[in-house]
Every structure is written in structure tokens, then in C-alpha cells.
Amino acid sequence: QLQLVESGGGLVQPGGSLTLSCEATGFSLDYYAIGWFRQVPGKEREEVSCLSSSQGTTTYADSVKGRFTLSRDNAKNTVYLQMNNLNPTDTGVYYCAAPHYSSCPRTIRDVEYWGQGTQVTVSS
Fold first, then answer.
1. What string of pLDDT tens digits covers the 124 residues of the chain?
2. Residue 82 region, left (φ>0) first, then alpha (ψ -120 to 50), else beta?
3. CA 21 – CA 23 distance, rounded (Å)
4. What CA–CA distance (Å, rounded) separates 27 from 5?
5. In this structure, are residues 20 and 117 in contact, taking their beta carbons and an 8 Å threshold?
6. 80 and 71 in contact (C-beta within 8 Å)?
């Protein structure tokens, strides 16, 4: 069974932090890329960050670079998105996403598997 299970969303004050997790079941992150997308109503889903362990590459969107950190727990086949210094523009539904190949997806068309989504709301 191929599945991505997300958790960690919630409500946070501006300047606060949240950590999202995504557990991958049915494929190994040693060989397949995994990333995070977020969606704001009225906009297309956009990539936030991605890890390709096989290529040794981690990428971040310009809007989150320096504030978000993607990491991996090898034993748990799980990735985390540590989000610091959150601001209201970070509000959205965050989706774990995997293309089922080694390169990071660039668009939603590259994604084969999606997590269920987790809501992140940054508000005072």
C-alpha cells in the first residue's frame, strides 16, 4: 500500500513555529523524492520544499527559504517540515507529495501520491 500520512498542522501566532510530519508507507525515501506543497484558495498548489535523498538535494521555495527546514528520519521513513517565523501568508493547506521517482516534483503534474493535507493557520 502506497500512502502518505501527514500531521502537525494547527493554529499559530505570527512569528511562531510548527512542525509538520509525513510518514511514507510502501516506498523507500532512500530512492524516491518527497516534498511539500501548499495551497491557498484561488491559487494553484505550489511546491514549498522537496528532498531527494538519492540526489542529495533539498530545495525550498524563495518565500520560505531560511525559515523552513525539511528533514528526514531514516528509521521512520518520515520527513518533517520545521516551519519557523511563520507569517499570515504561510496560511494554507499543506500537502505531502511524492512523484514515485528520484527527482523532486516541480508541479502538481509530477506528483503521483498526495497526503490528505493539513491546515496551517497563522493568525493573531
1. 789 999 999 999 999 999 999 999 998 899 999 999 999 988 999 999 999 999 999 999 999 999 999 999 999 999 999 999 999 999 999 999 999 889 998 889 999 999 999 999 999 9
2. beta
3. 7
4. 13
5. no
6. yes
Cell of 111: 506528483
Give the phi and the psi of residue 92 in degrees, each rounded to 5.
165, 180
Amino acid at 12: V
- Distance of alpha carbon 93 from alpha carbon 65, whole angstroms: 18
- The beta-carbon contacts of 58-61 under 8 Å, at least 24 apart in sequence, are 59/35, 59/104
In this predicted structure, what is the pLDDT of residue 27? 87
End-to-end CA distance of the chain, in Å? 40
CB burial class (10 A; 0-12, 13-18, 19+) of residue 1? exposed
DSSP class of residue 31? T
Q: Identify the H or E element spanning 39.
A: strand 34-39
* Angstrom distance (rounded) from CA 1 to CA 29: 15
